[in-house]
Structure to design on (382 residues):
């Protein structure tokens, strides 16, 4: 992918090193490149800071135990992408919406790829607030947000190998159940993940309901439901309202409460059909040939504070509709929100009071045509 920026500024190495209770094997990461360099430097490089853990309090200095070895530091850095912060928050449905690029733990490889759509994949938020992300290699990463005003994501070293879990094939999407159980899938296999154990089965799914019990797959305008607790036993789900043979379902988004949002393409135009648990279409959103309500492509549909938010990849926008009336609420450009010129918005995941978005963009170094995976913390959507 080629950025539309007219000029690029030299790369500035922006790394943050803070104290943490995580036992990580670290290496020094070069700015915008893979990990490398000497370890154990006596003086931190420019742009980095080190904070040692505070000593344990004691009421008797004589009885105090000998000092423990210094805890491992977590090194974090921003992806090497040019960010221009918005002067004012964007408005969507009367609410301020802001985005902040998260600093990421550098103990795992930098997420980057020559293909703009491969530098990072979808994500989900676990009930405890941790993030699970599919990285550029199709592996799972578990991030935990560090305390503080800035968005800093450290790897949970108890997950997989130092925060990264490798399964038997390259993953395309994932979902989390209310009990914390994780599902991830490729084109033909479903992986049920408990702790660090992944169990795979031949089960082709496109989406999993918020309860973590039902999966969905589709072909054309036909949808099949799969009982995940019964080895993917199948049953047809009657989709009512999509009778046109030229229509095709490109995305299935099960929503809380039993409704299902379907992204439908028909002769080059797109719309979102909101269907009840019985398959009957309740609302039709979008479908316009041009204007604010035009949908170019749907990467995700999520319930949001504005109603129902549609993440449009090709139009690079977030559009919102009233989830009960189907009336159009408004739209914002993803590039304006994230502060980048030409992003590829991948996915949105809603947490408690905060949302996260994965996106990719070309690097800020002149001549660097690779795309870099980014995670943004979004406020104002929930």
């Amino acid at each position: 992918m080629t950025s539309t920026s007219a000029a690029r500024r030299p790369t500035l190495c922006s790394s943050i090193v803070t104290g943490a209770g995580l036992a990580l094997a670290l290496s020094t990461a070069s700015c915008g490149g893979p990990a490398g360099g000497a370890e154990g430097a006596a003086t931190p490089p420019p742009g980095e800071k080190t904070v040692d853990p505070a000593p344990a309090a004691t009421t008797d200095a004589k009885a105090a135990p000998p000092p423990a070895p210094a805890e491992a530091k977590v090194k974090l850095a921003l992806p090497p992408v040019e960010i221009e912060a918005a002067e004012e928050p964007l408005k969507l449905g009367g609410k301020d919406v802001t985005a902040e690029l998260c600093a990421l733990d550098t103990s795992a490889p930098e997420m980057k790829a020559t293909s703009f759509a491969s530098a990072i994949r979808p994500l989900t938020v676990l009930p405890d607030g941790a993030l699970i992300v599919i990285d550029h290699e199709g592996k799972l990463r578990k991030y935990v947000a560090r305390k503080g005003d800035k968005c800093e994501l450290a790897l949970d070293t108890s997950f997989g190998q130092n925060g990264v879990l490798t399964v038997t094939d390259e993953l395309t999407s994932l979902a989390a159940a209310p009990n914390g159980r994780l599902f991830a899938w490729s084109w033909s296999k479903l992986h049920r993940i408990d702790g660090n154990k992944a169990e795979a089965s031949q089960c082709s799914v496109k989406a999993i309901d918020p309860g973590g019990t039902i999966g969905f797959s589709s072909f054309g305008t036909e949808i099949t439901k799969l009982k995940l607790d019964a080895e993917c036993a199948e049953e047809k789900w009657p989709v009512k309202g999509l009778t046109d043979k030229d229509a095709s379902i490109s995305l299935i988004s099960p929503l809380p409460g039993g409704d299902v949002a379907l992204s439908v393409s028909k002769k080059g135009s797109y719309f979102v059909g909101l269907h009840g648990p019985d398959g009957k279409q309740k609302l039709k959103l979008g479908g316009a040939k041009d204007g604010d309500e035009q949908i170019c492509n749907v990467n995700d549909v999520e319930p949001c504070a504005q109603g129902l938010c549609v993440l449009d990849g090709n139009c690079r926008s977030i559009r919102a509709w009233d989830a009960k009336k189907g009336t159009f609420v408004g739209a914002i450009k993803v590039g304006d929100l994230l502060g980048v010129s030409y992003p590829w918005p991948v996915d949105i995941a809603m947490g408690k009071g905060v949302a996260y978005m994965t996106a990719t963009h070309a690097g800020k170094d002149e001549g660097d045509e690779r795309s870099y995976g980014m995670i943004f913390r979004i406020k104002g959507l929930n």
The longest strand covers residues 371-379.
